[in-house]
Structures are given as C-alpha cells and as structure tokens.
Amino acid sequence: MTNPGSVDYWSLEGARVLLSPYDRWGTGIPDDPAQWGPRLFPLIRGIRNAEQDGGRNLREIAAELRVAADLFEADPTHEALGRIPRAETEDHTPRVLREIAEHLEIGKWRSSEDVPLTTGELRLRFPRFSQILPIYWGQDGVAISDEMRDSSVEDGIRMFIEESHPQCPWRLPGVVSECYQALALFHTEDQLDMFFSLEGMDGGSGSADFLDFFPLLARRCIEHLKEAHSPLWTPGRDRTEGDVA
C-alpha cells in the first residue's frame, strides 16, 4: 500500500500526461475500457516512442497510476491527485486507474498501430520546442518583444544560444534533433505553421518560414557547439586505471 506522505504532486506527472485527454471539466474517464482504450492509444504510442530518447517508460507510468489509485482510496483530496482525472463513476476511479496500468503493461494497445498520428502524440516529440518557440519566437516571446521588434530571426537565435550558454552541450543537441524531426514529420509550410503556431504549441518562427527557420536554427546551434564547446568528447577520457585499453 502506498504511503500517502511519500508522494508529492510531481511524482505523478507521467500519469497526467497519459490521462490528459480527460483533464477537462465534466469529462471523466469512461468506466468501459472499450472507450478509453482507443482514446489513450495515440499518447501511449507517443510515450513509447519517447522512451527511446530517454523519456518516461510505460511501466513507470503504470506504477504511477497504481499509486494514484491507492491514494484515491486513502485520501481522494490528496494534493498529489491534482489534475488526475476521475472515472465517470467517481467511486470506480481506483479500479479504472489500475485497469489502465495493466493495459499499459500487457501491450494489448499494440493492435491499434495503424491509427494516424494525433496532435497530442506529436507534441510529445517536441518537449524543447514547446518551451522555446513560444518564449523566443511566439506572439509574446522575448525575441519579438518591444525592444526587439525590428530584430532579425538571426538575432533571436543568437539570443537563445547566448541564454543557453554554458549549458549548450546539454540543451542544443536536442534542439537540433527536434528541428530535423519537425522537417521529417511536416512536409509543407502550411503543415508546419498549423502545428507549431496554432494547434500544437502556439510558437513561432519570427519573420521566417518554418522551412527556412528550422534548418537555420539547427545550423547555428551546431556552429556554436563547434566554436565554443569543441571537443565535447575525446576517446579514453572516462577510462580509469583499471580499464583495459
């Protein structure tokens, strides 16, 4: 049994991501698995894909769901349960959460692999863009604030890199990856604009088209890493005296 005192709000964040389709006023998780299974599938597939980049894995989220079920039985008002959706029949919440946890683990969801990509699933592929595009190039972003109203896209990129320094070796490679993933997934300017400026994350690309902006952002990040942080790795640096060459 989970000790309620050992659980805080952020320890259940993976469960919130998965259950986000039901995080709306008056929308509970259906009691029937035949209804919640197809609705949750795109996010399950997206989380499974993110595992390969070091994201949460499905078994971790299943464990969070079971903790949430235990907490609901012990204290439904526990602060850690904030924004954890309830079942449509609220008393059934612990059972439904445990059923979803089991669903993640036994892998029956794999039978839906031909379902098209959804906005929520695609958003999981851009955890860095969801922060930096709205902040630096979005409608209210720093890079197009009043002081930089006449700034170029290059000026905005330069500001982002400067504010990332000296954490660039940990921040910029992932940004480069998301640039090229965006170009691989969205093949026209209209698709890129619809996702990154509207439906996906309310971000922007300054005065440039996304088709030009993403390659430029990636190139400037790579150039900075080469100029200011090279070499990032050298053979043998992490060997100890006991290692065999």
Model description:
This protein is an all-alpha fold and 245 residues long. Helices cover 54% and strands 0% of the residues. It has ten helices and no strands.
Summary, kept brief:
This protein has ten helices and no strands.
Number of strands: 0
Number of helices: 10
Strand content: under 5%
The percent range for helix content is 40-55%
> Biggest β-sheet: count, sense, barrel?
none
Shape: globular
User: What value does the Rg take, in angstroms?
Assistant: 22 Å
Q: Which class of secondary structure composition applies to the elements?
A: mainly alpha
Order of helices and strands: HHHHHHHHHH
* Regions with little confidence, pLDDT below 50 for 5+ residues: none
Overall average residue pLDDT: 88
Distance between the termini: 49 Å
